[in-house]
């Protein structure tokens, strides 16, 4: 192999500099030139070979990480987001338009109703624990969280027509809730407060189709939280 590399190297140089080749004395310079070139080729090959192997390993590892069939988490995300039909995605986008017009107010309504029904849920978030229930509605901490919550929900709604982006948005939301020890049932119990706000923001109209669309969305989020929670516990 080294001999072939050397011959190719000499042939290329001969084509580029024919005049120089004619002036050289082969019997004196050729043996030295050949040894030096072989040595250079061997050194070059040795330097390149190691990075090549490392690069190959990285590529293989990356391919394994990104391959959906071998990644059960990725497959579960696909299975869950696929539950939302095109019709349901249209409904979610349409009904959310009026909700996002006042993120803080509508987010507050959701959390106040959730905490009214499940008072202990307030303890999930450390920033709410010291706030009396009577002051919670006007607390800066809750107003800030309500705004962030609805904006995060908005990113999910906006990505409804981009399957890959939807999966990423869903995964980000699920992962963000794990650190607060938010569990599946916490999200499921939020469905009714959300539906009440959806109804209020859309002319107090809430048909069964709209109810089902929002219910499926929150079921998907709840299920993904559980998927990531199980993975975290097993790691």
Automatic annotation (TrEMBL):
The keyword Cell membrane does not apply. Keywords: Heme, Iron, Metal-binding, Oxygen transport, Transport. Residues 16-74 are annotated as: Disordered. It comes from the Eukaryota. GO terms for molecular function: heme binding; iron ion binding; oxidoreductase activity; oxygen binding; oxygen carrier activity. InterPro entries: Globin, Globin-like_sf, Globin/Proto, Globin_lamprey/hagfish, Mb-like_M. Pfam families: Globin (PF00042). Residues 22-66 have a biased composition (Basic and acidic residues). Residues 83-229 form the Globin domain. Belongs to the globin family. Monomer. PANTHER family: CYTOGLOBIN, CYTOGLOBIN-1-RELATED. This is Globin domain-containing protein. It comes from Caenorhabditis remanei.
């Amino acid at each position: 192999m080294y001999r072939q590399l050397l011959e190719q190297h000499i042939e290329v140089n001969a084509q580029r500099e024919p005049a120089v080749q004619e002036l050289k004395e082969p019997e004196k310079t050729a043996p030295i030139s050949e040894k030096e070139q072989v040595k250079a080729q061997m050194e070059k090959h040795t330097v390149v070979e190691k990075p090549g192997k490392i690069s190959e390993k990285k590529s293989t590892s990356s391919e394994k990480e990104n391959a959906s069939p071998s990644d059960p988490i990725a497959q579960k995300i696909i299975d869950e987001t696929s539950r939302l039909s095109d019709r349901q995605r249209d409904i979610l986008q349409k009904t959310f338009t009026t909700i996002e017009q006042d993120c803080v107010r509508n987010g507050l309504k959701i959390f106040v109703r959730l905490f009214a029904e499940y008072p202990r849920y307030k303890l999930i978030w450390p920033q709410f624990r010291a706030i009396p229930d009577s002051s919670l509605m006007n607390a800066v901490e809750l107003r800030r969280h309500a705004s962030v919550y609805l904006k995060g929900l908005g990113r999910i709604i906006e990505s409804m027509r981009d399957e890959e982006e939807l999966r990423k948005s869903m995964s980000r939301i699920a992962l963000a809730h794990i650190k607060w020890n938010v569990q599946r049932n916490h999200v499921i119990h939020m469905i009714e407060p959300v539906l009440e706000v959806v109804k209020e923001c859309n002319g107090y109209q809430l048909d069964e189709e709209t109810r089902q669309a929002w219910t499926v969305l929150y079921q998907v989020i709840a299920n993904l939280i559980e998927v990531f929670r199980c993975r975290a516990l097993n790691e």
